[in-house]
Amino acid sequence: MNEIMPKEVIIVGGARPNFMKIAPLIKELKNQNIKYKIIHTGQHYDYNMSKIFFDNLGLPKPDFFLNVGSGTHAVQTANIMIEFEKVIQKERPKLIIVVGDVNSTVACALVAKKLFINIAHIEAGLRSFDVKMPEEINRKLTDQIADYLFVTERSALINLKNEGIDSSKIFFVGNIMIDNLIGNLEKARVYNYYKELDLISGSYGLITIHRPSNVDNKKDLKKVIEILNYIQSKIKLIFPIHPRTRKNLKKFNLEIKLNKPNIILTEPLGYLEFLNLMINAKFILTDSGGIQEEASYLGIPILTLRKNTERPITVEKGTNTLIRNDLNELKMYLDQILLNSYKKGQDIEKWDGKTSQRIVKIIKDKVLKN
Ligand code: UD1
User: Fold this and answer.
1) Of all atoms in ligand 1, which is nearest to the CA of residue 210?
2) Is 51 a residue whose pLDDT tops 80?
3) pLDDT > 70: what percent of the chain?
4) In this structure, is the dihedral angle defined by the CA atoms of residues 195, 197, 199 and 202, taken in order, positive or negative?
């Protein structure tokens, strides 16, 4: 029997916000001659929610595609687990790497743990303290069973300590998504996608809304639309619509209310198109997690339609403000933005483009040497 320990690393990606986190990691694993394979769970499957990111970011084709698709949380999580287990039992990697907080993250971590395979979690320790967010449950459970926890900001160190995680497993490495941003900034800058939409740099707001808390019931979604309608009376808006939001606008018969000359509606966009729109925006209105970080790094004002954030550094040092879904707060901060008196951001510790190097060094020294 072959007794050689496998040295391979398996990287899991499943949903849109995962792909920009695995891209810099893969680049660095390649630089360091570490063998890896990629598993795409298929949680996101539309071209513009998945493959466009592989194309934009120069990611290699996944070695395994699990094709799980959408479903209720239980169905989706269970299907990922069933399919992932089959692959992992054959592959027996030395380490699996999961990123972020989507259903694919927790599903694959759980399977790996029960097969005694080491787990690294990139973006560990972030907490919104709101268990009504499915992501909060995914984060907490993944961190409880992970063996290597890579942290983006100091608040996460405190959260993990409070949850009793052994400090020897925790590494403050910075934000890998910012590595990707830095690596693609020049390409996105010269792309000038905003011009294709007849937008003028610094003269429009960029919108992304997809959280269940904002779009899954009619009352909340109407509130969001009220906010958008107010803003479009002041400045042009571009709104790439996430499939969840699109589905609910249709279900609640609200599409018509967004039919305004000052709002451009599009399908979800690729990485470079979206980054180009971010760089040139006057401000961003979002309920996304990652965009709070990207906008903060870029110094673009960002208003977040949530009452909490698992990324508090973006409010403390970045350009982010939480406005819940309160029209009065929106009006106040929008005025500041339009009058150029809104707060300016500061540099954030270890968001310097070197996070993937730090992570891979730790993996090499602590996991693959044994
Ligand atoms: C998921 C993540 C969320 C992340 C978001 C980014 C979880 C619990 N949530 O939410 O953290 O911010 O991705 O996009 O993992 N759909 C399509 N095409 C696709 C994918 C989805 O049409 O390629 C539709 C389906 O109707 C599906 C719905 O969008 O039911 C929601 O997709 P799902 O993967 O369940 O969650 P997201 O809202 O995308």
Assistant:
1) 38
2) yes
3) 98
4) negative
Four-residue CA torsion sign, 230, 218, 69, 6? positive
In this prediction, residue 369 carries a pLDDT of: 86
pLDDT one-digit tens code per residue, 12-46: 999 999 999 999 999 999 999 999 999 999 999 99
The label of the residue with tokens 């673009």 reads 300
User: Is residue 210 annotated as part of the catalytic site, yes or no?
Assistant: yes
Does 15 sit in the ligand 1 pocket, CB within 6 Å?
A: yes
Q: Does residue 275's CB lie within 6 angstroms of at least one atom of ligand 1? A: no
The Å distance, Cα 102 to ligand 1 centre, comes to: 9
Asked if residue 208 has its Cβ within 6 Å of ligand 1, the reply is: no
Which domains are delineated in the chain? 9-174+351-368 (3.40.50.2000), 183-338 (3.40.50.2000)
Q: Which residue owns the Cα nearest ligand 1 atom 11? A: 102
14/118 Cα distance (integer angstroms): 19
Complete DSSP assignment for 152-164:
SSHHHHHHHHHTT
CA 104 to ligand 1: nearest atom: 15
Cα 87 to averaged position of ligand 1 atoms, centre (Å)? 23
Burial environment of residue 354 by CB neighbours within 10 A (0 to 12, 13 to 18, 19 or more): middle
**CA 244 – ligand 1 centroid, Å:** 6
Q: In the numeric block, which tokens belong to residue 289?
A: 């997690």
Least confidently predicted of 7-11, 102-106, 289-293, 338-342: 7-11
* Separation between Cα atoms, residue 43 and residue 51, nearest integer Å: 12
Q: Does residue 310 have its Cβ closer than 6 Å to ligand 1?
A: no
User: For residue 146, what pLDDT is reported?
Assistant: 98
Q: How far is CA 238 from CA 241, 265, 331, in A?
A: 10, 6, 18
| Distance of alpha carbon 72 from alpha carbon 86, whole angstroms | 22
Q: How far is the CA of 21 from the centre of ligand 1 (A)?
A: 17
Cβ(67) to ligand 1 under 6 A? no
